[in-house]
């Protein structure tokens, strides 16, 4: 099945079961102070779960474009390095608002996966909430008994509160969930280590594909749970992971969702995908990030210096740095991916094709301006090394802080010249900066970064995190 067919089969499966197909909400959230970007299919139904608006359709289904780059769900660090977390992804979902509950949700998910998509039953695992005595939460035996009708008992696993209990916030609707995981390892490996042991263990070949949330409680201010008069179902399945499972690939990027874009990038970079791990990561980053940036712009969020706009700017700049550093793109290139992407999403999310020219122009302008900064930084680097025999920590930090060089880029440039970078010194300078920024209310950390303490602590965290964790990640590959 092609990815288009897979998406359509999901929607028509639930349409046939009386679900109303609704459009995706924009990825940019404008009227919710607790959320910057849509990060799950249920976001657009929040007011229904809270009982603030009447239910128009009691069964709905859709594919929701989601962005997980800030706040509670921030997967940015993993993107490109691993093969199954994206910045922007589609979450396929079906909902029951006070209509059907666990029985149907469980039976249908199993039917869809095994009969329509024909996924191998011997590679699927399901989890149920194990309960939490301290919190007074019971084991979800109801779900366990229902799963037993479909799945061998040794494939039904217990999951903890973190993975298998969903809450909207400190108070409000909540409930246990069941996740479905898929094991893509070759037979020999599956014989050696049981898949059961690898569920929720960060194994890149045994991954979560679907989460079925059963909203049955309301958490009160006192912390007490009371049963909801009307119970709801909220499910979310990662489309790209599903496609990968059905297409029998070991990476989301090997599916027809990403390959056309990756092939285009590889050709323009004069390389092939699958030859050099560093280049592969860069190609994955580009093919992923352009999706987040393009839809954010199409949905009304321009790159800028604060809040959501700043997050988008950082994502685009991350892509530019990978393109520049590992693929040799010294002039704007990423904007050329916009038309390809727009065409790919035609008929699914038409927002992009409708604004293709505008989106491409914004990306191009961002690329031009950031490449100028990078080039100036490189000039500064050249001048510096003409007079020094090694890169000291303060200078690596200046490049990072003023010119947006992550320390791996500095490391790369230094290696090319056979020079050493004082990483400890860099970390020290980074730490000092962090402390300074904590102390200040408003601080200007460079030519594009203006952050105020408070609202935007998220991004400051990401900035520093990225600078430091990338060092570790690059050592690994
Ligand atoms: P994971 O544990 O893999 O990070 P999750 O438990 O955070 O996933 P959920 O919040 O349960 O994910 O979201 C529902 C589904 O959305 C997941 O089962 C998965 O298939 C998909 N998904 C979640 N995060 C991502 C992502 N960053 N990129 C692609 N798909 C994702
Ligand atoms: Mg996650
Ligand atoms: Mg999970
Ligand atoms: Mg989950």
Task: Characterize this entry briefly.
Helices cover 45% and strands 18% of the residues.
- The number of helices is 17
Radius of gyration (CA) equals 24 Å
| Main sheet attributes: strand count, strand direction, barrel closure | 9 strands, mixed
* Ligands: adenosine-5'-triphosphate, magnesium ion
Domain module tally: 2
As a percent range, the share of helical residues equals 40-55%
Report the order of strands and helices. HEHEEEEHEHEHEEHEEHHHHHHHHHHEEH
Q: Spans of 5+ residues with little confidence (pLDDT < 50)?
A: 441-477
CATH class of the largest domain: Alpha Beta
Class by SSE composition: alpha+beta
CATH architectural type of the largest domain: 2-Layer Sandwich
Would you identify the CATH H-level superfamily of the largest domain?
Answer: Bira Bifunctional Protein, Domain 2
CATH topology of the largest domain, by name, is BirA Bifunctional Protein, domain 2
Mean pLDDT: 89
Distance between the amino and carboxyl termini: 33 Å
The amount of beta strand, in percent, is 15-25%
Overall morphology: globular
Family: Belongs to the class-II aminoacyl-tRNA synthetase family.
Catalytic activity: tRNA(Ala) + L-alanine + ATP = L-alanyl-tRNA(Ala) + AMP + diphosphate
Keywords: Aminoacyl-tRNA synthetase, ATP-binding, Cytoplasm, Ligase, Metal-binding, Nucleotide-binding, Protein biosynthesis, RNA-binding, tRNA-binding, Zinc
Main location: cytoplasm
């Amino acid at each position: 099945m092609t990815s288009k067919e897979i998406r359509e089969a999901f929607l028509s499966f639930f349409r046939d079961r009386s679900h109303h197909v609704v459009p995706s909400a924009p990825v940019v959230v404008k009227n919710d102070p607790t959320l910057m970007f849509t990060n799950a299919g249920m976001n657009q139904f929040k007011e229904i779960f809270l009982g603030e608006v009447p239910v128009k359709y009691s069964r709905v289904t859709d594919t929701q474009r989601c962005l997980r780059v800030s706040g509670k769900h921030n997967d940015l660090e993993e993107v490109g390095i691993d093969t199954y977390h994206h910045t922007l992804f589609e979450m396929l979902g079906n909902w029951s608002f006070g209509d059907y509950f666990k029985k149907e949700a469980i039976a249908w998910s199993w039917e869809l996966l095994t009969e329509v998509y024909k996924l191998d039953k011997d590679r699927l695992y399901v989890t149920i909430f194990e309960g939490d005595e301290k919190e007074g939460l019971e084991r979800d035996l109801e779900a366990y008994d229902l799963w037993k009708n479909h799945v061998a008992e040794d494939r039904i696993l217990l999951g903890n509160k973190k993975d298998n209990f969903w809450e909207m916030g400190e108070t409000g609707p909540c409930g246990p969930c069941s996740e479905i995981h898929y094991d893509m390892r070759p037979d020999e490996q599956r014989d050696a280590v049981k898949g059961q042991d690898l569920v929720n263990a960060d194994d890149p070949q045994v991954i979560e594909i679907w989460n079925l949330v059963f909203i049955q409680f309301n958490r009160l201010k006192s912390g007490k749970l009371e049963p909801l008069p009307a119970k709801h179902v909220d499910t979310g399945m990662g489309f790209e992971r599903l496609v990968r499972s059905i297409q029998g690939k070991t990476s989301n990027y090997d599916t027809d969702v990403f390959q056309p874009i990756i092939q285009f990038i590889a050709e323009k970079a004069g390389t092939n995908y699958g030859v050099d791990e560093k280049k592969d990561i860069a190609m994955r980053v580009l093919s992923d990030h352009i999706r987040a940036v393009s839809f954010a712009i199409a949905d009304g969020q321009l790159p800028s210096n604060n809040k959501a706009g700043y997050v988008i700017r950082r994502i685009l700049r991350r892509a530019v740095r990978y393109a520049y550093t590992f693929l040799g793109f010294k002039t704007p290139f990423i904007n050329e991916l916009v038309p390809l992407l727009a065409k790919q999403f035609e008929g699914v999310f038409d927002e992009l094709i409708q604004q293709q020219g505008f989106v491409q122009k914004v990306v191009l302008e961002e690329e031009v301006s950031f490449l100028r900064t990078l080039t100036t930084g490189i000039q500064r680097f050249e001048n510096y090394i003409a007079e020094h025999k090694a890169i000291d920590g303060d200078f690596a930090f200046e490049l990072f802080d003023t010119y947006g060089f992550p320390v791996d880029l500095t490391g790369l440039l230094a290696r090319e010249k056979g020079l050493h970078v004082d990483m400890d010194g860099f970390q020290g300078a980074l730490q000092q900066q962090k402390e300074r920024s904590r102390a200040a209310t408003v601080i200007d950390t460079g030519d594009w970064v203006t952050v105020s303490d408070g609202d935007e602590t998220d991004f400051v965290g990401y900035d520093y995190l990225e600078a430091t964790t990338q060092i570790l990640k690059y050592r690994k590959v």
